[in-house]
Design a protein that fits this description.
With 165 residues, the chain is an alpha+beta fold. The protein has helices at 3-10, 82-86, 89-92, 128-144, and strands at residues 26-37, 46-53, 56-62, 68-80. The longest helix has 17 residues, at 128-144. The model has no long low-confidence stretch (mean pLDDT 80).
């Protein structure tokens, strides 16, 4: 759902769906509850806004075919003095979205990484029990150790059905 389309849909709340504010104040969406996006890609919305209270509405939006696009169980608005939105503007203007480059030293390469490899490829079918035993021993040794390393078991052309072996 494109944000501009949702924003345009919410403009209808200014036509009496929400209570009037004090002079000089503006209403801003404050608390969203029960939001469900039913579909994406809509370029047209039919919106139904139901007043739930003085400052709360429910919103249901459908596409041109009537299929639901988005529903909001409740959306509460809060009155704000526009001057509150300006306060600290100069301080915050450059505070966000700043990119800083931090140099990080390259990791030291480990000379001859230490990991066991159990290669059981190319063995004839008669060695299946022996191969399975060796693989089991490798797994048990790994589990008995205190390393945080992960164990990877890679198979190729393995079959679950002995008749297919």
């Amino acid at each position: 759902l494109h944000p501009a389309l949702l924003d345009a849909a919410l403009h209808a709340t200014s036509f009496g769906a929400v209570a009037e504010t004090e002079p000089g104040q503006v209403l801003l969406p404050f608390a969203w509850n029960g939001v469900t996006v039913h579909a994406t890609g809509a370029t047209f919305l039919r919106v139904r806004i139901t007043r739930l209270g003085n400052d709360t509405v429910a919103v249901t939006a459908a596409d041109a075919t009537g299929a639901p696009v988005v529903s909001v169980g409740s959306l509460a608005f809060r009155a704000v003095d526009p001057r509150q939105l300006e306060s600290g503007d100069d301080v915050l203007r450059d505070a966000l979205f700043r990119v800083d480059w931090q140099e990080v030293p390259a990791p030291q390469e480990t000379a001859g990484a230490d990991w066991p490899v159990l290669d059981l490829t190319g063995r004839p079918g008669a060695d299946v029990r022996e191969s399975a035993g060796e693989a089991l021993a490798a797994v048990q040794e790994h589990l008995a150790g205190e390393s945080d390393a992960r164990l990877v078991v890679l198979t190729r052309d393995a079959v679950a059905d002995p008749a297919q072996a």
